[in-house]
Amino acid sequence: MTDLYRLTAAFLAILIVGTACSTNKVTDKEATKPNIVVVLIDDAGYADFGFMGCQDLKTPNIDRLAASGVVFTDAHVSATVCGPSRAGIMTGRYQQRFGFECNPTGDSCFIDSNELSIASALKEAGYKTGAFGKWHLGDQPGYRPNERGFDYYWGFLAGGRSYFPNENQDVEGDPRAITENFQQVSFDGYLTDRLGDQAVEFIDRNKEQPFFIYWAPNAVHTPMEATEEDLALFEGHPRQTLAAMTWALDRAVGKIVGKLTTEGLLENTLFFFLSDNGGAHNNQSSNKPLKGFKGNKFEGGHRVPFFVCWGAEVEGGRTFEGLTSSLDIYATAMDAAGAERSEEQSLDGVSLIPYLKDEKQGSPHGKLFWRKDEMAAVRLDSMKLIRVKRLPPVMYNLSENLGETNDLASGLPEIAAQMENALENWEKELMEPLWTEGTTWDTITWMIHQDLMLNRAVRVKEPAQLKRFKQELNHE
Ligand SMILES: [Ca+2]
Q1: Torsion angle of alpha carbons 405, 408, 410, 412, nearest 10°?
Q2: Which of 2, 64, 278, 370 is the most exposed, having the fewest neighbouring CB atoms within 10 Å of its CB?
Q3: How far is the CA of 450 from the centre of ligand 1 (A)?
């Protein structure tokens, strides 16, 4: 940090402590704890924000925030679909350790009760905790947000819903219905806007103490729905609906940042911004220049837009190239909060603070692992190996071939074997998935991997296409 930053931080600390003394509502120690905000976007493409180089989608508020912080170029989520990716973030641990390996498929899918959520941990550290938007981590009693460490919740428990009020979904007991804590509530207008408003109100109610916000809009997941006003702004745009949905998303983020700014809280707020998995094949997203998309083990599935900012604590306007995981959010938040961790709680993530403050160099991780049912992958430094059951593995050197087209597995068998060993050793620490996604999706996912491994066009991306594919096979 420069001297100027140090002086500014010291001045702010004095200001904050001064305010705390005068209002006498919080202790000095609590007053200096940063607020923590995780903005978790749903299914956004790697290339679909201005700060990632996007030209045709407009995200000025998000870009301004990114510019004030550090953009990570090699950051990965721990799963390529929504539910398990969120389970990893929520626990700071590989979700396969507790069987949350696949997307939830029914009522008995949830995060094991023995796992301590990031919200519970921060609550213990004196934070007020609020979750907004999509949950997708269990909709049964005992596993809902208010029962997993959140003081306040406004959102829906399912994996997706309409962006507008909907008479089929906004029904008591439907996991797609909006609930405030445990009560079903109605809403007006466009859901992304309301999620912004709700976070602003939460900040207003809790501004006198440190708070944790998990803001997880369903934007830009399907269904592709935007307001007439936002669509009109992008008339004739080749990705009109996504552009309008992204514009609304940016507006909501702007509202939250605006509130923090007005209240004088932005400088002392640690912000994480990321997508829960790569852009999907069905939401007009772009993962360029990466290969693959949501649901597969190529970079387009799990390398995500990711930035961190924290006022003057972290010098902004920089990029960070070390290998980083979404599992690091938990440990970083705990570190920033000065929170104690119990010894038996073994996190897979590490604190990014020393890297953000230039106290440590290099990568937070030398290895990262992925597995969902029959598909797995491993990173060892710049090498990446993808292993799919009943197929020979493929291996790429990402420092030379980010697009994963040049398979080195047969040419470098010793390195490939070393990587497979690392993967198998990691798997010894896991349990079997507690549920899978069923044979139709298993078949589709397997076929997508086979096609991408062979550098050919993907034949089948969804159940209707699989049905047609099978019919054509039978006619031959
Ligand atoms: Ca998702």
Answers
A1: 180
A2: 2
A3: 22
405 touches 467 (CB < 8 A): no
Taking only the tens place, the pLDDT of each residue in 187-224 is 999 999 999 999 999 999 999 999 999 999 999 999 99
Centre of ligand 1 from the C-alpha of residue 196, in Å: 19
Ligand 1 mean position to 299 CA, how many Å? 15
Tokens of 60: 């000025």
Buried b (16+ CB within 10 A) or exposed e, 115-125: bbbbbbbbbeb
Residue 271, token pair as written in the block: 């912000």
pLDDT tens by residue, 108-144: 899 999 999 999 999 999 999 999 999 999 999 999 9
206: which DSSP letter? H
Quote the CA–CA distance of 263 and 174 in Å, as a whole number.
36
List the structure tokens of 410: 């047969």
In order of start, what are the domains of the chain with their CATH numbers? 33-356 (3.40.720.10), 367-475 (3.30.1120.10)
Distance between CA atoms of residues 331 and 349, nearest Å = 6
Q: Say how many Å lie between the CA of residue 44 and the centre of ligand 1.
A: 8
Long-range contacts of 255-259 (CB under 8 A, 24+ apart): 255/196, 255/197, 255/199, 255/200, 256/37, 256/39, 256/196, 256/199, 256/200, 256/203, 256/213, 256/215, 257/61, 257/64, 257/65, 259/199, 259/200, 259/203, 259/204
pTM above 0.85, yes or no: yes
In the beta sheet, which residues pair with residue 139? none
Cα separation, 294 vs 250, whole angstroms: 22
User: 73 C-alpha to center of ligand 1: Å?
Assistant: 19
Query: What is the 221 CA–ligand 1 centroid distance (Å)?
Result: 7
Q: How far apart are CA 356 and CA 438, in angstroms?
A: 42
How far, in Å, is the centroid of ligand 1 from the Cα of 40? Answer: 9
CA 283 – ligand 1 centroid, Å:
11
pLDDT of res. 19: 44
Q: How far is the CA of 466 from the centre of ligand 1 (A)?
A: 22
Span from the CA of 297 to the centroid of ligand 1 (angstroms): 14
Confidence check: pLDDT of 17 > 50: no
